[in-house]
Amino acid sequence: MPVLAHLSDIHLGQDHDGDAGARAAARAERVMTYLEQLPGPIDAVLVTGDIADHGLAAEYAEAARILASDRHPVLACPGNHDDRAAFRRDLLGEEASTGPVDRLHELPRLTVLLCDSGIPGRNEGAFGDDTLAWLDAALSRARRDVPAVVAFHHPPVALHSPIPDGIRLRDEQRLAAVVRCHPQVKAVFCGHAHTGAVTRFAGLPLAVAPGVVSTGTLPWEGGSGLAFDHPPMIAFHVLDDDGRLTTHHRVVV
Ligand SMILES: [Fe+2]
Ligand SMILES: [Fe+2]
């Protein structure tokens, strides 16, 4: 059974009370240390965007150091705070270019499709024509007998959390139409909302990662919409042999 760790929204470089990003880096390091020290193996670590707070080269250099692992593949996609060219050059070590960062990872027991749901210069998201066509083609070529999951930053449905709901994925029905054509897709994973949430999309389970740098608060919890006094949290996703998803949430102390 494939097991994934899922973290999101580490926002490296985010200034908190004048700390120049020290708090964000320390929280991301805590999470990665926790995963590095797990007694048992996992298949991969997913990081669903907002890796750098300002899309700066130095923030990606820090991300490359913090997210590096000798134990598991660490698979990342960009979010609305990320910069495609710097993400490619300074995190992935590739040629800088501004096209969408879409990646297929064929792990031994799982196919992971990481998609770029960003719109440069905007906080809301959408699958552009290039990314939708890439996803459809990648799923058509991918192994049919191995389960697949699709991960990206912007949740494609409302989560009843007003701030992220206002900047969620647009035109989600176009994505749903593609995903529905490929029955090996068993789950969809997102970030952006900084709140561990489970719902459904395109007939599939959709799990939103909790935030590492902060936690999105819900209307009935009060506050300004983001809480900085919650600990970092992550999710573990387990896919049964019959394709059923189980998600566990963990506070990282
Ligand atoms: Fe974020
Ligand atoms: Fe975001």
Report on this model:
By secondary structure, the protein is α/β, with parallel strands linked by helices. The chain has a single domain, classed as Metallo-dependent phosphatases (Purple Acid Phosphatase, chain A, domain 2, 4-Layer Sandwich). The chain has helices at 22-36, 57-67, 84-92, 129-141, 162-166, 172-180, and strands at residues 3-7, 44-48, 74-77, 103-106, 111-114, 125-126, 148-151, 169-170, 185-190, 197-201, 204-208, 215-216, 226-227, 233-239, 245-251. The strands form four sheets. Strands 4-5-7-9-11-10 form a six-stranded mixed β-sheet, covered by helices on one side. A hairpin with a 2-residue loop joins strand 10 (197-201) and strand 11 (204-208). Helix 2 packs across helix 3 (84-92). It is globular. The two termini are 27 Å apart. The protein binds fe (ii) ion (2 copies). One fe (ii) ion binds at residues 50, 79-81, 153, 192. Belongs to the cyclic nucleotide phosphodiesterase class-III family. InterPro entries: Calcineurin-like_PHP (IPR004843), CNP_phosphodiesterase-III (IPR050884), Metallo-depent_PP-like (IPR029052). Pfam families: Metallophos.
